[in-house]
Amino acid sequence: MIIFCEHAVETLTYFSRQIAQEFARLDYEIFWMDFEKIGLSAWKLRQRMQSSRTQAVLITFNAIGLSGEEQLWDADAQGLPSDSIWEQLGIRCLNILVDHPIYYYEALRHPVPDLVTFCIDRDHAAYMRRFYPDLQCVFLPLAGNLLLADDKEDGAVSGTGSGCWRAACDGRDLEVLAMPLEKERPAPVQTLDQWLQRPYPLVFTANYVPVANIEKQLDALEPEYRDFYYEIIEAFVRDPGRDLLSGMEGLLMREMPDLTEAQLCEAMSNMPAVDLWIRTYFREKTVRILAEAGMKVYVFGKDWDLMACKCPQNVIHNGGMTDSAACVRAAAGAKLALNTMPWFKDGAHDRVFTAMLQGAAALTDPSIYLTEQFTDQKELFYYDLCGLEQLPELVKGLLKEPERVYAAACSGREAAVRYHTWKSRAEILRNYASLPGTA
After folding, report:
1. What is the pTM of this model?
2. What sections of 132-243 are H helices per DSSP?
3. Which spans in 76-121 are helix H?
4. Which of 272, 301, 371, 429 is most open to solvent, judged by the fewest CB atoms within 10 Å of its CB?
């Protein structure tokens, strides 16, 4: 039996459903731990495990269910989390971290027994092996999302009226977006003429967070700490090729040269705001520079109306939350799909693979892993964070050569279908599940 978590984080629930679908096809029993009814789910799991000799494994993301949640952990004499439901029921735990390990310091300091951690970036995996050498860690890239059988057809217009979207699509009805996608499969191969009918020249599926919101957290710190954090941030802005550890370690050791490995790990765990600031800064800058150069960017995500821009009419947004299914549909309606890496320097974001599976050409800043997988101008297109001023001309040039973009989209789709689906990732996870055959 495979246990997955749902209703904790929408994106991670969607990832879980993609993987669960593949295990279900192999005839494994699937149990859903519903975090909106966590107590009831825990009771049902105990009943299920105690009424049979079923072996089970938990596959979760970002330590959901492994972070001392009250309904899943007993408390010791001091009221601190003690034995977990996973230990009590002999359930192995596979934990996929889709962010840097610095976000999960407490969960990693006090792990459940027999835990296997998967990192989506090889830098993250190296960090784990250095600072948590007793934990088994495996590099497992993210994969591309597909529409699921129960996805709502109106997910792409969440939070808006259809009139707003018709205007955004230059008068075309948004129903064009729901092209003949066969659910649970990659977008069908389209002819060039069909592909040219896609309504979005350039899309970006991500939320907007004002940098000022993060700066409020930093500015609340003592001046000494605040200035130090901004010094680290400025170093990343000057050299955006650095990964988090290499960018932070030198400055931390300069200030505190006697730090032990354990102390350095703890100090790093206090710096998520730095990571959030730099990824937000470059996401905002990338969209703004395109919009202010006259490019229309169709953004699927919340709060883009809050971004200061000299040409706000070129940032065409739905004005509300967009779920994962809507992001898949957006990619299916796009010619070019923009991505900015959330500081994954040796990994990849699911936006890249989702775009490819839906027949859009991915446009992204590179990583070591991506450049090993895909060739610029062949399966996708790369741009440089150090040369963002050149990005508008790159996009304009590509949109003037649709046949070239189409060829890359077709090659990218073929590569993603072969290597970068959740089916391929499920096959790897199955090797670590320690479950006999199929259920």
Report:
1. 0.90
2. 162-168, 192-196, 211-219, 223-238
3. 85-88, 105-109
4. 371
Measured CA distances, 80 to 63, 65, 110, 356 (Å): 17, 16, 11, 46
**Nearest residue to 2 (alpha-carbon basis) of 41, 57, 43:** 57
Joined together, the tokens standing for residue 251 give 């400055």
Distance CA 145, CA 356 (A): 10
Cα–Cα dist 110/97, whole Å: 16
- The amino acid at residue 113 is P
Instruction: Round to whole Å and give the CA distance between 11 and 2.
Output: 19
C-alpha to C-alpha distance for 288 and 236, rounded to whole angstroms = 19
For residues 324 and 11, the answer to whether their CB atoms sit within 8 Å is yes
State how far the Cα of 413 lies from the Cα of 431, in Å rounded to an integer. 26
**Residue labelled with tokens 């609340």:** 220
Which of 371, 379, 434 has its CA nearest to residue 407? 379
Token reading at 225? 């700490």
CA 133 → CA 104, 137, 236, distances in Å? 15, 9, 27
Lookup result for tokens 């107590």: 39
Q: Is the pLDDT of residue 89 over 70?
A: yes
How many C-beta neighbours within 10 Å does residue 230 have?
16
Contact 350, 179 (CB under 8 A): no
Q: How far is 51 from 89, CA to CA, in rounded Å? A: 12
- What's the pLDDT tens digit per position in 202-249? 999 999 999 999 999 999 999 999 999 999 999 999 999 999 999 999
pLDDT exceeds 70 at position 37: yes
- CB atoms inside a 10 Å sphere around CB 164: 17
- Continuous H helices in 221-306: 223-238, 244-255, 261-269, 272-292
What mean pLDDT comes out for the span 290-314?
96
Residues with Cβ within 8 Å of 417's Cβ and at least 6 positions away in sequence, in order, are: 186, 357
Distance between CA 205 and CA 235 in Å, rounded? Answer: 28
CA–CA gap between residue 236 and residue 132 (Å, rounded): 25
What phi and psi values does residue 33 have, to the nearest 5 degrees? -90, 105
Element (H, E) at 262: helix 261-269
**H or E segment at 356?**
helix 350-357
**Count of C-beta atoms within a 10 Å radius of residue 243:** 22
DSSP, res 421: B
